[in-house]
Amino acid sequence: xxxKNQNNKSSYIEQINNPNTSQAHKLYLLTHYKRLKRIRFxxxxxxxxxxAFWEIATYFKIxxxxxxxxxxxxxxxxxxMSMDGSIFYHTGITLSETFLxxxxxxxxxxxxxxxxxxxxxxxxxxEPYLVVLNSLPKSALAPVFIVWLGNNMKTIIVxxxxxxxFGNIINLFTAFNEVEEGKVKLIRTLGGNKKDILVKVxxxxxxxxxxxxxxxxxxxxxxxxxxxxxxxxxxGLGYLIIYGSQVFQLDLVIMSVVILCIVATGLYxxxxxxxxxxx
Amino acid sequence: xxxxxxxxxxxxxxHNLDGxxxxxxxxxxxxxxxEFVAIVGPSxxxxxxxxxxxxxxxxxxxxxxxxxxxxxxxxxxxxxxLIGVDNKNNIKEKSPGNKIxxxxxTDQLLDWxxxxxxxxxxxxxxxxxxxEIYETIEELLNTYGLRSFKNAKPSELSGGMxxxxxxxxxxxxxxxxxxxxxxxxxxxxxxxxxxxxxxxxIIRKEQKTALLVTHDISEAVSMxxxxxxxxxxxxxxxxxxxIKLTIDDKTPFRARSAPEFKDYFNLIxxxxxx
Lengths: 279, 274
Fold this sequence. Notes:
The complex is a heterodimer of chains A (about 280) and B (about 270). Chain A is mainly alpha-helical. Chain A has helices at about 1-15, 25-60, 65-70, 70-85, 85-120, 120-135, 140-150, 155-175, 180-190, 195-205, 205-230, 235-245, 250-279. Chain A folds into two domains: about 1-65; about 80-279, MetI-like fold (Orthogonal Bundle). Chain A is built from 13 helices and no strands. Chain B has about 270 residues and is of the alpha/beta class. Chain B has ten helices and nine strands. Mean pLDDT of chain B is about 80; it is low at about 70-95.
C-alpha cells in the first residue's frame, strides 16, 4: 500500500512538472492529492485534539486525573521509568516473549499444516478438534496453564501460542488445499511424487499466504502474551498494567497501554515491510 | 520402427459413493513412431481419462498399455489385489514422465519461476540437471524465439510464448510420446491458430510421436495424420480416419485451405453425430 503511494507520489511530481501534461489532468491530480492531504490532516487533528482535551480537562479538574491519568502525568511516569531503565526492561520482556511465541506459532503452524496436507485421514480426524480449539476463548485456558506450568514465562509462552496457532494451522491448511489442481497434476506428469508437489508447488505458491498470516500471528501472539502476563508474570507490560491498576497508579497503566499501542503498530509495520520485500 | 504405443483392450471405471461409472470400454489402438494421432469425441466421453491412463497417473480397470515394444505392460488390477499391485506399480513407475510427455489444457507455468526455471522443473524433479542439458535448453529457447525472455516471469509472456515454454518443459525430458490434452483450448482463436502451427512444427521438427485430444474437429484435421473418433460414454472407438491432404509444405494453418479439408471435416462431424 505504502509502496504504491510512494510510486504515485513520484509520478505525481513528474506529471505536474511535465510541460506536456494537460491543464485538465493537472487539475485532476491536484484535487486527488488535496483530498489525500485533507484525510491525513484530519487523522492528526483527531489525535492531537484528543490529547489536548484530555490534558485540559484534567488541568481544570473536569475529570479526575487520579482516575483518568493525563498526558503530562503518564509522560512524566515514562521519563522517570526511562531514567532507571525499568520501562525498557518491561517492554523488552514483553517483546521477547512475543517474538518467541511468534516464532513457535509460525514454525509449528507450518509443520502441522504440512502434516495435515500430507495425510488426509489425519486432517479429517483432527478437523473438529481444531475448529473447537480455534473458537475457544484462550483466556479461559490461561488459569489452567498457571496451575499446570507454574507462575512463570512458560505459561505466558504457552498462552500466547495457544491464542495464535489454531487459526494459523486452519488458514494454512485451507490455503494448501486450494492450490490449483492442474499444478499438482503437472508435477505428477513430470514424474514427481508427493514431496515434489509440496516443495515445488504447495510451499512456493503459498509464500504470500504464509507471510500475510504472519501479520495476523504477530498480533495474536502479543494478545496472548498480555493475557499471560496479566495472570502469571513478574515483569512485562501486561504485568505493569495489572500491577498499576491494583495499586491505583493509573499513570502506569495508561503509559503501558500507550507503549503497547506503539509496540503493536511497530510489529505490524515490521511484517508489512517484510511482506512488501518478499512478495 | 514399429509401434510406440499400444492400447490393448482397456476399460476404466470411476468409483464414487453413488456407484460405478464405466468411462472407457474395451478400447484398443496403436500409434506408430513419429505419427501424429488426434482423438476426438463428444465432450465428457473420457478423452482426458484416456490420457491419464496412458501417462500412468491412473491404472486401467482391465487391459494393458504398452509404451515402446520392449517395455512391460501396466499391470491389470482387480479389486482383490488393488493395494498390493498399486504399491508395486508405484515403485516400478516412479516417474511416468520418463517416457511420456504430457501437455495439460493450460500451460501451468509456475508464476514464481522464470522461463528458464519453468523449463528445468521436470529435470529438477527427475534429478537430470547436467551442464549438457543447460546447453540444450539454451538452444531450444533460442530456436523457438524465447532467448530474450529467458529470465522473464510467466506474467510477462504472451499466451503463445507460454505454450511454447510449456512444450519445451516437456521436450527437454526427451519423451517417447507427447500427450496433448486440448493444449490450445484456453487461448483466443487467433492465438490458437498461431500456437497450433508453432507446436505442430516443433513436434515435427523434433520427430516426436504425438497423441492430441481435442473437441475441435478442424484442429484435429489440420494437425493429425490419423483421427480416432470415440463414441460417447463409455468411450469405445467409433471409427479411425486417415488424413491425407494434398498440400505442399504442410502446416496446420495451410492444411485448412487444402481441398480435402472440408470433406474430412464433414465426415468426422457425421461420425460424431450418429
